[in-house]
């Protein structure tokens, strides 16, 4: 589904207009960073799963 450092799309864009987020932390809370403005946001895993739409780029694709 999703892993650490994946770039994901959420159902609604951030206030800056970007809709790409990098997953920085996975656990009971999810820490994601907006790729447009760099804002760091923490969500509960439940809220993240409700707002998650799809994975845009996998972390291992970025490293290669």
What does this structure look like?
- It holds the Pfam family DUF951.
- Strands 4-3-2-1-5 form a 5-stranded antiparallel beta sheet.
- It is of the alpha+beta class and 64 residues long.
- The protein has helices spanning 45-51, 59-63, and strands at residues 7-10, 21-25, 29-34, 40-44, 52-57.
- The longest helix has 7 residues, at 45-51.
- It starts with 6 loop residues before the first strand and ends with a helix.
- The mean pLDDT is 94.
Summarize this structure as a short list of keywords or feature phrases.
DUF951, globular, five-stranded antiparallel β-sheet, 64 residues, single chain, alpha+beta
- In spatial order, strands of the major sheet run 4-3-2-1-5
Question: Helix segment count?
Answer: 2
Based on CA atoms alone, the radius of gyration comes out at 11 Å
Helical content stands at 10-25%
- Mean pLDDT comes to 94
Question: What is the first-to-last residue Cα distance?
Answer: 19 Å
Tally of strands = 5
Give the biggest beta sheet.
5 strands, antiparallel
Shape: globular
User: Into how many domains do the coordinates divide?
Assistant: 1
Uncertain segments of ≥5 residues (pLDDT<50)?
Answer: none
* Structural class label: alpha+beta
Content of β-strand: 35-45%
Task: Please provide the ordered H/E string of secondary-structure elements.
Answer: EEEEHEH
Pfam family, one: DUF951
InterPro entries: DUF951
């Amino acid at each position: 589904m999703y892993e650490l450092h994946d770039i994901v799309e959420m159902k609604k864009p951030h206030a800056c207009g970007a809709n790409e987020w990098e997953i920085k932390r996975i656990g009971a809370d999810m820490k994601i960073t907006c790729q447009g403005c760099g804002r760091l946001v923490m969500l509960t895993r439940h809220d993240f799963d409700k707002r998650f739409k799809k994975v845009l780029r996998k972390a291992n694709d970025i490293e290669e």
